[in-house]
Design goal:
mainly beta, Leucine-rich repeat, LRR (right-handed beta-alpha superhelix), four-stranded parallel sheet, 23% strand
């Protein structure tokens, strides 16, 4: 595949959907991250620790930061969606403040982030997938702050206490 037309209106791109195509290779790269339109689909530099998303980014794709050394992420204004397992196995990540404006968190966003201790979810988050914070291996969490309107959802299967506000 060499062309799919105008990608500026792309809102979702599935994991590995277009890998190994000339079209994928030609997509924009900013600060070590690959983008399709305003969707960050992959962090190419797995050793990078600090990342600033390009202005206008609306989605962090599925498994986008999987296995990176990231410990700090400067979210761009306008992020609406964080895909499933976006930060899987990011062992340097110790806290996550999801910015206001994010509306959706995919399944297992922080899967296998063994050093993650604190998570803050803003009131703008309207939908989350089951076990958005993992399946019980993160019992070192010290603070998980989640808005009250998400209190009836099965978002974590572990021993850590969730603080609803």
């Amino acid at each position: 595949m060499t062309d799919i037309g105008d990608s500026s209106g792309v809102s979702v791109v599935g994991y590995n959907a277009l890998d190994d195509t000339p079209w994928y290779s030609s997509q924009e790269e900013v600060d070590g991250c690959k983008y399709v339109g305003n969707v960050l689909i992959e962090c190419l530099d797995k050793k990078k620790t600090d990342i600033k998303l390009k202005e206008g980014t609306t989605m962090i794709g599925d498994l986008a930061f999987e296995g990176t050394k990231i410990y700090s992420l400067d979210f761009a204004k306008g992020i609406k969606i964080i895909g499933y397992r976006a930060f899987e196995n990011c062992s340097n990540l110790s806290f996550a403040v999801i910015p206001d404006g994010v509306e959706y968190l995919g399944y297992d966003v922080f899967s296998s982030c063994k050093n993650l201790r604190e998570i803050y979810v803003p009131e703008s988050v309207e939908r989350v997938q089951v076990e958005v914070f993992g399946n019980g291996i993160f019992d070192n969490y010290k603070n998980i702050a989640v808005p009250n309107h998400l209190s009836g959802m099965f978002i974590y299967n572990g021993k850590a206490r969730i603080k609803y506000y």
